[in-house]
Amino acid sequence: MIETATQSSLARKKKKPDIVPWIFLAPYLALFSVFIAYPIGLGAWISLHAWDFTLPRRPFVGLGNYEKLFTPGSTTFEPFWQSMVNTGIFTIASTPLLLAIPLLVAMVMNQNFKGRNLFRAIYFAPYVLGVAVITILWRYLLDNNFGLMNYLLDLVGLPSDTAWLTSLPAVWVSLVGVTVWWTLGFNSVIYLAALQDIPKELYEAATVDGANGMQKFRHVTMPGLKPIFAYITLLTLIASANMFGQSYLMTQGGPGTATRTAIYQITETGLRNFKMGDASAMSFVLTFFLLLLSTVVFFGLREKKDAKS
Amino acid sequence: MRQQEGAKKKFTGLLALTAISAVALAGCTSGTDSEESAGTQSPTAEAVAIVLEYTGPAIELSYWNGFTGGDGPFMQSMVEEFNASHDNITIVNNTLPWGDMYSTLPTAVGAGEGPDVGAMHMDQLPTFAARGLIVPLDDLVVTLGLTSDDFTPEVWDATLYDAARVGIPLDVHSLAMYYNTEHFEKAGITAVPTNGAEFEAALIALQAAGYQNPFWMPNRWPSHLMTLSLTWQFGGSAWGADGSSADFASEAGVKALEWQRSIIDKGFSPNDVAGDSQYIAFKNGENSITWDGIWQINDLQGSEMPFGVAAIPMIGTEPGVWANAHNFFMTTQAAKDANKAQASKVFIAWMSEKSGDWAGSGMIPARDSVRTSGVLDGLPQGPVADQISAMRFLPAVPGIGGVQGATFEVAVSNGILGLEDIATALKAAQDQANALLEENRVQFGG
Amino acid sequence: MKLTKSSLRYSLLIALALIYISPIIFMLVTSFKTQSGATSYPPTWIPDPFTTQAYETILNPANDTPVFRWFLNSMFAATMHALLVVAIASLAAYPLARLKFKGKKLIQGLVVITLLVPPVILIIPSFNIVNDLGWLNNLIAIIVPTAAGAFGVFLMRQFFLSIPLELEEAARIDGANRWQIFTKIVLPLSKPGMATLGLLAFLSNWNDFLWPLFVLFDNSLKTLPAGLANLQGSNAVRYDLLMAGAVVASVPVLILFFFLQRFVVEGVARSGVKG
What we know:
Oligomer: heterotrimer
Mean pLDDT of chain B: 84
CATH topology of chain A: MetI-like fold
CATH architecture of the largest domain in chain B: 3-Layer(aba) Sandwich
Order of helices and strands of chain A: HHHHHHHHHHHHH
CATH superfamily of chain A: MetI-like
Number of strands of chain A: 0
Helix content of chain B: 40-55%
Shape of chain B: globular
Shape of chain A: globular
Number of strands of chain B: 11
Low-confidence stretches of chain A: none
Radius of gyration of chain A: 25 Å
Low-confidence stretches of chain B: 1-42
């Protein structure tokens, strides 16, 4: 290729060892070492100690913290695994909705019509408002005694005394619902861009072939979305598995600890109760599961892509 | 942020140090005498003011506290009064929820970004002393003439850590019963209920008068305070005497939580009452009785609704009510700087002498001499203060607050919401708590 | 036929838009209610009495609820963070796109690994490191630690690769060194990429809640999410105040968004397509 030839001729001109690349890379490498590589090592080191941030004594306990995490009845077993289960519930409940509903909305918007940008902006607005504003607002709307939600339900004759934030399973409905409301615009925008990249000719050809809406969706839209599907799925899954703000601000992890997610438990243990050894061990276990999840999703979606092509 | 540099500071500091030593020595000699004899007079406010002066350069002190309720505005105005009357000291008030304060204090002080002085609950003093974050204030205790005779034993003992006094008690506060006087009138209730039977009778009368849910039982704050109180009333105690063990699942504890659940089962309260919403409902007139801390008095007075305050009724077999005490502390951060240390002591001393004024916030002065001096006459919390002998406190053990939050409060919440069988929930929480207490002992004590 | 399809579309979109707009309106309306008005039942759409007491309380400096200050802190931190991210990612991506050097594969592998590292594993140790650096309670702790992101490097690398090599070749022949090529040719042509990356970095920092919650103590230093959380903690049931706070937090953001929305939305859209 011409490119390679030109590059090699450029390269051959140099005689001394090239430090230019390293100068370019220096800032990144500096930050990487201090804030990514070193912390990973430090985190592992901390997890091997009974490390209380505020006390000078931090005795080495080997794999003791990890053992505790896998020993039923220990002080960390139940809280941690409960939080993992909670995280799992939220991820499973929210991800399909976060993938499907924005796609539907994007499909409805996938045409040049008057006001489209306005609608797009309206749905996207909550995302720029941020998690704190959104959760304060919805905490108010979902209050079971004076909230607007129960009032509106009452108006249409539906049961209006659900404790949206303090009872199971309603609290999950609230958390998932608010999360969908909050991020629908964001995901829709990504879908919309991908949909617009699908050539109109493909749809026209399909119509000529006699395909109906459902078939067009399966054979034109879905394949066309493949490139971003892995991206948006991973993005959504990871975001759901890392959920913290909604739980912390809307339900305080309640009722009891039923909506306390894994990250919430880790920060509570490590940065509120200062038991950093335990918290660090927890974060490594969670990381293992997240890596597993990412790998499964990534390879799962890649295979389909290769198979189709 | 609040940095001051230069040799000038060192010189003034030295001057102040000399002044402090002089004061301390003076205080020491007279103080030792009063420690020995019983019932001595504490120095008058004027005397203290003269003795404790800050003559250094203009200084700013960071003051953290958790007075976010009705007591907040009152504390704010007291701080303003102090700032106005002290030319060279400015107190910067930082109020945040107690829970947040306790969790951010260690890192903040460690990083030098924390408060110089603050207020905290008595059961937190050992935790922060054990973490090396707050310093002994023995010289201040002596200067103010505070002795054990002037305080409830538990309150006084809680200020002691490792043979040093680390807190200056400001007030005592407990749960109280608030009732809507108009509702009571309408229901024909003339005497405030004082025991379980009278209480239930009152609830039934209120329902008959049209108040469907007269007494709301929250599942979170301040629910576990009620459980603690009722457990004492039933003859038990959630915590072992010296805080070395948890005893949530005793017969008394189970009875206590079961009584709370029964309020919902009997229809007096809706289910799923979120923390603090029973209080809003009370202010809105949606319920007739609520149990809450006396710190709400100021807020209720501001809302102009017709309310009365009384001690919580004796549902069990003996009087008992949860109480806590606010204490002033000084951090190691402030102690490192002679000027800050002195200015902090001036502030704490001033506040302590003003504990009678603090009663205006709905609190009860911690010092017996102040409490019985008439400052509470005519104040709503008067009837509660009369029951001071029924007040029970948490044992002062490092880390106990965290343990209670992680175990007891969760069990109470689940029990009231009906999510778990009460005896099972309390037993599981108890086992968990004991394990955590053991861990804490190793971590803090060993 | 077309008319029905169009009106169906509009009905769906308008219905959805209502679900988005009405809560915001209710938030605005409630901010003008009294304390008891905000928690009364049934809820009302018209405040009666109409009062600005909530705003007066929030904006009163004595009450330590500097919502506008929080907004400014967030703006500052997010902007600085975005600039830092774009700078560092661009610098790192260039050699990976254009230069041959020993260890290139290693560095590329390193960047991929960074992509795989879940942030949760960094929380506890980063807190210790930030403390040791003396960065606690300082906005720098919000700006710097998360600036070395793999996503940015990949994004910029792809943009660089799409620039015709001949342009750089020509400059090389003219005697330009790598730095000049980078700054005078490559970067100017990568503006869309830098804008997209900057925007995403800005949004991610703007929305970050967990980290500021634990590293910023002073009320005057907090970013918007942390400050609002504090407001909520101290005034759990003062919904009039909370709505007023939320409105003060939202208005500047919405104004900015109104002017920049095409840019923002299209930037996010591009991130998906290219990534």
